[in-house]
Structure formats: C-alpha cells, structure tokens
Design a protein that fits this description.
Blueprint (H helix, E strand, L loop, with lengths): L2 H16 L3 E7 L9 E6 L3 H17 L6 E3 L6 E5 L3 E6 L1 H7 L1 H4 L4 E3 L5
Parallel strand pairs: 2-5
Antiparallel strand pairs: 1-2, 1-6, 3-4, 4-5
Amino acid sequence: MNPNVEHIARRAATACLDKKATDVVVMNVQELTPVADYFVICSASSRPQVEAVARAVRDDLAELGVTCRGIEGLDEARWVLLDFGDVVVHVFRPEEREYYHLERLWGDAEWIPIEAN
C-alpha cells in the first residue's frame, strides 16, 4: 500500500466534504483492478454542486502537485469522473449513483473511513 496515494484519496474526499457532497466514501480497489488504487465516490444534489465539487477536488489536489489526467461527464454534470491516475474520483447525482451503484460493483474493496470536518 502506498500511503501517499491514500493521502491523496483522503484529501480528495475532504475536498468533496468541503463542498457539502454527501455519502462520501473512499474505497481501496488496488487488489481488485489495475485501473486505480482508490476510488472516491460522493453525491451532489444539483448540477452546480456537481461542478463545484469537481472543481474543488481538481484544485485541491493541484495544490498537492497532483495533476488531473482527465475529466469526463462535466458537460452533463450527472456523473463526473476525475482521473488522477492512482485515484479516481466519481461525483454522482443521486439518481446516477443509485443506478450504477459502484459500491456494490466493487463490494470487496476495503472502505477507508472519512471524517467530516
């Protein structure tokens, strides 16, 4: 386990919480997929909030020197995926989160507890 990567995932989760995202979870998926080491998943209730959460995560991790390699879904702002390499952040509208239910799909992942400020 790379503690720096976990720190990046936790920082992304904190950025989500700072923008009032709900149901924020961090999942360690490194033993389950080569795609990433951690998924950060959260919900945002409106298009402006989805956009604000995505911007906050991108900007906060940029302060750590972590570059966002790609952003998908910002045009519709229903499911925005931010790819930071070892950490992938998913910002969902509640309907999309319920439909895709990534927590169930990656149910064998270790959940990392996150505390709200």
